[in-house]
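Fold it.
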Amino acid sequence: MRRSSPCFVEADILVVDDNVANVELLIALLEDEGYARVDGLTDPRDVGHRVRRRPPDLILLDVRMPHMNGFEVMEQLRQHHGDSLPAVIVLTAQIDNDTRYRALTLGARDFLTKPFDHLEVLQRINNTLHLQRLMQERAERARLLETLVAERTRELALRARQDPLTGLPNRHAVLDEIRDRIDQGRSAAVLFVALDGIEEVARVHGFATADQLVGVVARRLRDRVRASGQLLGVWNSTDWVMLSDCVAEEQAVAPIAECLLSCFEAPFEVDQMQLRLTARVGASATLPGRTAEQLVRFAALALPSGAGAWQGYDESLEHALQRRTGLREALSGAADRGELHLAYQPKVALATGDIVGAEALLRWESPAYGRVSPGEFVPIAEASGEILSIGRWVVLEALSALARWRREQAVPDDFTLAVNVAPVQLMQPDFARWLIDVVGASGISPEHLELEVTETGLMQDMALAMTQLDTLTGAGFHIAIDDFGTGHSSLAYLKQLPVSVLKVDRAFIRELHCNHQDQKLTGTVIDMARHFGFATVAEGVEQAEQLACLARMGCDLVQGFLFAPPLREGALLTLVPAGFADSEAFLSGVGDVRTGTAMGAAGKKPAGPRTGRAGA
């Protein structure tokens, strides 16, 4: 009679006992209780085959049997199935401690003693099946969790090697690929690609547009790279790396680099806008002893400065980098160690030949590197931020010199000294107030200190530049735009900025006497300055023919090697009293032009520079 409804009627149960009567008794008992999948075996040697063919959920296993006892059957099953061994309830009339311990050691879940108590048999079977189901569910959850963890781990591993914005390999993946090729002895070229213009797009159109643009660039380059079997990866937001199998020869790398650069010839379409970027490419190649990191660094070091160009690495670039690094370290504290000094290049009035001012030019005599050109160390100082302390030193040194000259009456009362202001100085919010304070403390009138700023410096932050320059001109300083015509020249800017002097860059003066185009450009700048009320200064004048052209055009002041190079203080003060009116250089250059209408009345000095904005 069925006493209860079993919870696991679908369970597959196998009864193993050499006594046929015991097998039939247990099968009948289980079937009467509702279990529908019950089998019996009397030969223990058949158990292994049955379990392999259809693993049961539960085995009711006798201990004492011929051919193989129950312990041997369990050992065989454990050997073949390990932890997936089906649940086992041991059937035995002998329930001594040794039997119990050995059975438990082999994985038995429970015991049924002979003769069987039917209710006990059913309850122990039900308990074991319940426990088995719980263990199976737990094992399945563990396997599922393990699968999910493995998938997530693979996903994270993939993401750790991918750029999230483009899906391209990131620097870790690129370096691993380079290492693999080095280990395999394959010749390869590493091309470092600098994308120029992305930051500007972000500033003008927003970061979302810039991100879209990067994706469009990635697709265009990836399509091109796929076709040639090369690897493209992202090094950082604006620098990418391409790896190509090729020999370390320029003729092999050139087509690859030019192909890359050609991808930037057409604009990129983003949100119905045609956006343009430029690129530069540096290249290096696998050679014995070079590591993956070195190859990328060498390629980055080889980046040319000009857009749309490529350059291969050579050791001279490494030497140049080492020199720049050494100069940057040596420049720190150079002013405090007395290694810096100012040289002064006279400014000559074309109307009179008098020295009416000078430009203070920074010079560095390094104990380690000797005399270092400003063209080499000033950019290093600007990049490192050292220019801020150096710029303050220049101003203080120039003020000290000018105050000393005026006390000694070595220069005329209207003599002006010009100092260059680096863009990073102009972008310091407190620069104008600091300059006003130190000039005031020096006893020098602000109108005698002229500040030369570059067009590029003004364009970095026009609003801040306007604020600074307005404050300075309001305090009486004169502002000159240096290297005019080589940067972002604009009539609109000239109208807005409180400028009083335009300096014509030496690039227009170099061939002024023989290049008609330079004559037209220079004449236009001088005429425009005259219209706005600006004084004009031509720099780099080295030949009398150039001076004659400038005189005919009505230029106010000139400076250059025709009269004097940058001089030490003593040499400058020796020249100031006499000027250059009677010098052969001045007479041969100006000659009869002095009496022409372009110069106005002979013998008069040019009008002082106007302050304030054009049209004010």
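Confidence is low (pLDDT under 50) at residues 595-616.
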